Each structure stands twice: as structure tokens, then as C-alpha cells.
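Minimal example, chain plus 5'-deoxyadenosine.
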Amino acid sequence: MTPDRDELIRLLALEDFTPVYARADAVRRESVGDTVHIRAILEFSNYCRRQCRYCGLNRNNRTAHRFRMTPEEMLATARAAHQAGYRTLVMQSGEDPWYTKELLGEVVKEITSWDMVVTLSVGERPHGDFAYWKQCGATRYLLKHETADPVLYDALHPCGTLEARVGCLRALKALGYETGSGFMIGLPGQTLSTIADDLLLLKDIGCDMAGIGPFIPHPATPLAHQSAGDPALATRAVALARLLLPAAHLPATTSLGVLDDAEKQHVFSCGANVIMKKVTPDAYKTLYEIYPAQLGHTDIPAERRALEQQIRALGRNPL
Ligand code: 5AD
């Protein structure tokens, strides 16, 4: 029995969530097994044409130092990730039209020719670009819907609509991409019924992946003085996503780990089965500041080995 909207709201507010975590963990084990997939993420440009009010990369943030990696730099980093054992590379950027469909297509063609899966996460683009990159070899696309409440969506996004966002997600799905969405927990104005709608939207789109993480205020954004999302509520949402989408890839999100490292470990026993690791070179990594975080030095092979050990320590199998 999959929970309906009222049931989701009731579950999100439960005093003791332990039984739901246990159910989500059992569904995860039966549907996707004990593997934890490790993905490399390369953040290759922090230029962005949008004005999302929660995000440090929004174009109105004049304090951000902007960078773009060249295709050569991108390939060198991708190569290092491949050599360290990664077999999926998430290529993420702000919405930066400097990277034409042809230019990104060439990078995708090269990387996918080395037995590497490419996930693109470059925002809303013309549907023809999505189709072109699919032909170039990209098989996955991440584009979070951020919030399923159209009024809240409008308040947070001066330059986009929920309808356009969901339109992109449905187009990606129709093109045969493994399609990832997701949303934030703790956005100002969000309620438990918003989160129920967020979860139902993932199901309605037929998402293959969903990233659910707490909101973290960025000091150079209009939401600087809002409070951060509740990590435990984010974990609850991941568990419910597992019940609704048994076979989905559900990451333990970076923002969850930034707020609460123990909760990031815990979410692996509540439905999560994916983790992403930044491979972005040091010179750029600190500039890709969606929200504030403490970032160490990038050592691609050493960090991958450490992560594999942590996953084994949880009784799971890194891949
Ligand atoms: N806190 C947490 N997550 C954020 N994102 C953007 N800004 C923030 C923030 N302040 C998330 C969005 C976006 C992803 C790349 O990062 O969900 O899709």
C-alpha cells in the first residue's frame, strides 16, 4: 500500500518515525539491494542566468567570483575521476548558456567513450538540447523541481515557473533519460502538505532519482536570515520517497551532511542508496557556493577510498 496525500502528511508529523524508517530500509534492501552508488560530481561553471532566492549562485549575487572550466580542464578532471574508479560523472553548473549544446555535447561524447556514465545537471534548456545530448551519449539528467507549491515556487524564482520546470522533467523522461528531480526541506513558507505534494510529484513524473536535502541559508541571498531546514525532516522525506518509489536512486544529500554529519550516515538506513563526491578542482570548488560549507582539499583517489571504507563500515557495498 503506497501512502496517499493525507497519509503522507500524517506520517511526516509522527512522534516516533522509527517504524517508517525500518519499512523504508526493508523496501530499499528488497528493491535495490545493499549497493551504495558513488557518483563523482564536477561543478564546472558557477555562472547562472537565474535569480533563485535561496541559491548563492543566483545572478544577483555580486559578491560571487565567477568561473568557467574549459572543456580541456573538464576532461582532465573527468579522466582523474575515471582513474580513481568512478563510473558515473555528474556534470553540474549554473544555467550558463556560454556552454552551447555542441560544446557540452563534445565533452559528453568523449567522457562516455571511456565506459563512464554521464549525468547532466545544467538546468532548464531548450528541449532540443536535451535530445541532442542524449544522442551524444548522456543518459541521466538531474533537475530538481525545488518545491511543488506553485505559489511558493513563484515567490522563490523570479525567473521561472513550476510549469516550465515540470515540463522539462517530463520532456527528459519522454526522451528516455533516467530523470532525477528533488526538492528542499525547510524553505520559508513550506508546510508538511507541501512536502507531501513534493513527494507525490516525484511519483507523478516517474522519477528515477530524487535528491531531497535541507535548505541552508546563504548570507549573500535574500533568504540569508531564514533558518535552515530540519535534517531529521529531510530524512523522513527520503524514507517516504523510498516507499513511493521503491526502485529509485535516492542520495544522502550533501546539504544534509553539511548540517548534520550523523544524519547523513543515518539516512542510509532510511532508504538512501547513493552518495555524490565533489571532484571539482580546489581552485573552483570553494567558488561553487550554493550554500556555505566547509570544504577540504580535493584528492580524488584518497577521498574515493575513504568513502568506500565508510560505506563498508555501514555494512553496505560501495560501487
Ligand atoms: N540550501 C540547500 N540546497 C540548495 N540548493 C540551492 N540552494 C540551496 C540552499 N541554499 C539545491 C537546489 C539545487 C541544488 C543544486 O542545490 O535543490 O537544485
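The domain at 5-314 is CATH 3.20.20.70 (TIM Barrel). The chain has 13 helices and eight strands.
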